[in-house]
Specification:
Strand content: under 5%
Radius of gyration: 19 Å
Distance between the termini: 61 Å
CATH superfamily of the largest domain: Tetratricopeptide repeat domain
Largest sheet: none
CATH topology of the largest domain: Serine Threonine Protein Phosphatase 5, Tetratricopeptide repeat
Number of strands: 0
């Protein structure tokens, strides 16, 4: 399978345009499958990262997607796109804690990276646990948090009327 720079750029651009299915098809044409795409240039590392994101969002194959994104970070730890893509994969997999760790790690290295700042902003901030000395998952914190959220929703509903 002959890989060209143009094909790689087109696949990456498809992911940036959020056309993940088309991007995944293009990456499969370039790499074959997610098991072991060959790495030859820095552009390949970028391709791995975007391939991982498309794989997670389309086929929900989170483990190989995480591996691809981590491999890209190992090859180009200074590229914020890799951290942003891995964060999005963790979010899709439902692992908010890992997503937060990844985006914060990326922002420490590249504080002004636009994609990282956007992903971090989209994640929002969690409210502090109602009883801070108890774990967030403790039943008391869960119940009080649900009550706080229900009150917030009710207050917003009153404002709309």
């Amino acid at each position: 399978m002959a890989r060209t720079s143009q094909e790689m750029e087109a696949a990456i651009e498809a992911v940036r345009e959020e056309d993940y299915l088309r991007a995944l098809t293009m990456f499969h044409d370039l790499y074959g499958d997610e098991d072991g795409p060959p790495i030859q240039t820095p552009k390949d590392a970028t391709g791995l990262s975007f391939f991982g994101l498309a794989l997670a969002l389309v086929q929900r194959k989170f483990k190989p997607a995480i591996d691809l994104c981590k491999r890209a970070i190992e090859l180009e730890f200074y590229n914020g796109d890799h951290y942003a893509n891995l964060t999005k994969v963790y979010i899709a997999a439902g692992n908010r804690r890992k997503a937060l760790e990844t985006v914060e790690q990326g922002l420490k290295l590249i504080p002004d990276h636009e994609a990282l700042m956007e992903v971090r902003a989209s994640m929002g901030n969690r409210a502090r646990p109602s009883v801070p000395f108890l774990d967030r998952s403790h039943p008391i914190n869960v119940t009080l948090g649900q009550s706080r959220h229900a009150k917030k929703v009710a207050d917003e509903e009153k404002k709309r009327r």
